[in-house]
Amino acid sequence: MTPEILILAAGASSRMRGADKLLEPVAGQPLITHLARQALATGCPVTVALPPGGGAREAALHGLAVTRLRVPRPEEGMAESLKAGLTSLPPKAPVLLLLGDMPEITAADLSLVLDAHAAAPDRIHRGAGADGTPGHPVLFPAWARAELADLAGDQGAKAVLARHAAQVMLVPLPGDHATTDLDTPEDWARWRAARGG
Which candidate in 91, 92, 100, 138 could, as Cys together with 9 as Cys, close a disulfide (CB 3.0–4.6 Å)? Predict the structure, then answer.
């Protein structure tokens, strides 16, 4: 069955001191737009989990063929976005989870993870840095979805990954693509400086 891509973009950007990291410009467009375009380029169905009001994040997705999903209580943690997203997707579909704050992820990176899944569909496939550091995105086969749906709070999928460590296959992505997530204005400033602006 074709994997579904779920972009988790309902968080509050609480460490950005009033700014919204998902609206920071990347490649000339808001980060959330950039990530949605990368996901769509794989040919997989794409769902974006958004805050209840939608707001500027939803506006940034205008014209893109993604499913917009409003998460009722995102303040309760990432697990709420996961559960809302999983409930909205075909029940037997594998799910590729993509965090909304990863500016270096490309369509080619996503395709590498999807290709790994196609070769070993019963395993969990996790993007990793070129040095082997585990990161994101993570593609879960259908058998893992019930455990993801049982999560609570802000732990994300870490508990499921730990429980099934023997089933996890790392997929090396170029450079730091899989491990670069930017949470503060200082993170963004350093990242831009390292890229020459």
Answer: 100
